[in-house]
Amino acid sequence: MKGFHFSHFDPDENSKTNFQKLLDIFMQMLTYTNGDVSEALNWLTQLDKEYKLTNEEYGLGDFIDELKEKGYIDENRQTGEIKITPKTEQGIRKKSLEEIFGKLKKTKTGDHQTFKPGQGDDINPETRPFQFGDMLEQIDFVNSIRNAQINHGIESFQMREDDLEIRETDFKTQTSTVLMIDISHSMILYGEDRITPAKKVAMALSELIKTKYPKDTLDIVVFGNDAWPIEIKDIPYLQVGPYHTNTVAGLELAMDLLRRRKNPNKQIFMITDGKPTCLKQGKRYYKNSFGLDRKITSRCLNLAAQCKKLKIPITTFMIASDPYLQRFVTEFTETNNGKAFFASLDRLGAFIFRDFESGKRKTVY
């Protein structure tokens, strides 16, 4: 007797082709392998053996050929080296954004709404008389011409300053953000991978800003023994090094980058395990990994105070649970009048995005 086998129906999953299903996994693997295509494909091969991801009709060889045809990977015919393309880099960012924050539609404007009228993108229905200093593009010519006709007549048409009306637009703020990522060796200590969630958040945040808030700016700063900026396209390749944690260098670079930005609203997000262990004094590195060194922490607190004076709030996302480190982060936060989240790795993205989104409704003066 024939029967029927029922299973859970996932419309999104069933609508995907074999290539799309493998591509989703491949994108995840690239995040863990720091953009190493060969290693990602080796991992994918192991997963295929264990979970039978492919079948007789579509194998991994077909998948690799399709990756090349569709421009996801590029092979150097002379050296045989395979690298991901900018298309894949953007795909990884989009995947991270969907994973952490859901799908968003692209807009043409920044979207930090305020309740203040001014120069912006959304037309305000209210009008007012022209004032000295108003810009020409703010003039409502329909109402202004009507006023001129009423005040002076049609036969001797003329337009004076008193006839002009201004239609304002709702002002939208722009925000400059620096995201600091700790890449010291402690970010992979004790068998805990802290750097991969940090990279995913950085990629997702960059994609969010590019799609929904394109007038905003985002700078990525990584810090170990030193600090340096990286491009958004370089995030997938980011690796932890044999570094100490020079939080001071990271903060100084972040402040320097924000100093060059014209936006009045500036902020720093810092992902770290919370333990500064290094300073650079001239050409010499002062290091101490045993506990919290007062010489190092005092410099950190001084920079937090400077950021407060410059109205640059620092939001620290602490991904370590040591009580003495949390106490330091609390003191650092109070000095800056910023915020701190003691986040588990699986909730790191949610914390950062909730804070980033809530900040859009605030204006820093």
What does this structure look like?
- Mean pLDDT is 84; it is low at 112-122 and 361-365.
- This protein has helices at 11-15, 18-32, 37-51, 60-69, 86-101, 141-152, 195-212, 247-259, 294-309, 323-336, 348-358, and strands spanning 73-75, 82-84, 112-118, 120-129, 165-173, 175-182, 217-223, 227-230, 265-272, 278-281, 284-287, 314-318, 339-342.
- The strands form four sheets. Strands 8-7-6-9-12-13 form a six-stranded mixed sheet, sandwiched between helices. Strands 3-5-4 form a three-stranded antiparallel sheet.
- The protein has 365 residues and is α/β, with parallel strands linked by helices.
- Helix 2 packs across helix 3 (37-51) and helix 5 crosses helix 7 (195-212).
- It is built from eleven helices and 13 strands.
In short:
The protein has 365 residues and is of the alpha/beta class. The chain is built from 11 helices and 13 strands.
CATH topology of the largest domain: Rossmann fold
Overall pLDDT level: 84
Number of domains: 3
Helix content: 25-40%
Q: What's the tally of helices?
A: 11
Spatial sequence of strands, sheet with the most strands: 8-7-6-9-12-13
User: Mind telling me the CATH class of the largest domain?
Assistant: Alpha Beta
CATH architecture of the largest domain: 3-Layer(aba) Sandwich
The strand count comes to 13
* Beta-strand content: 15-25%
SSE arrangement, N to C: HHHHEEHEEHEEHEEHEEEHEHEH
State Rg.
Answer: 27 Å
Biggest sheet architecture: 6 strands, mixed
Oligomer: single chain
Structural class: alpha/beta
